[in-house]
TrEMBL record:
InterPro entries assigned to the protein according to its UniProt record, in alphabetical order: NADP_DH_HndA-like, NuoE-like, NuoE_N, Thioredoxin-like_sf
Protein name: Formate dehydrogenase subunit gamma
Biological source species: [Roseibacterium] beibuensis
Keywords, alphabetical: 2Fe-2S, Iron, Iron-sulfur, Metal-binding
Family in the record: Belongs to the complex I 24 kDa subunit family.
Amino acid sequence: MPASQTVSPAGVEEIIARHLHREGPMLPILHDLQDHFGCIPAEARPAIAAALNITQAEVHGVISFYHDFREEPAGRHVLKICRSEACQSMGGSALGEAVLTLLGLGWGETSADGRITVEPVYCLGLCACAPAAMVNGKLKGRAEAKALVAEVSA
């Protein structure tokens, strides 16, 4: 995950301009901004809205609808734990609670040192290997709390 960078209006405008030629440019713009800054900076919303001729509320609606978009940078390690029914039936709820307890965090929180963010997700597509998790983009089936915590703490 890229380190958060200082938001410059010129940098935001450059990213927006790269995608304006596309049909449906909003999602590519948002993904590119997040890749560059580690989140979708609030300072970018007016420029996105103006470039796409929509309201800032519409921009906010898209950002808040998609769970992978962030308004604040995530930790250096992102741990996502599946909360869907299949994983819950195989111990996913207990897995999530154990991980949160071991790390001293709540859902969606980032550790004070900025190392770890824990997020709930709703299906990682590993239902047959439940409970499932994702560590820094890598899927983990039959996940165990201590192993997940060890991986993000290393």
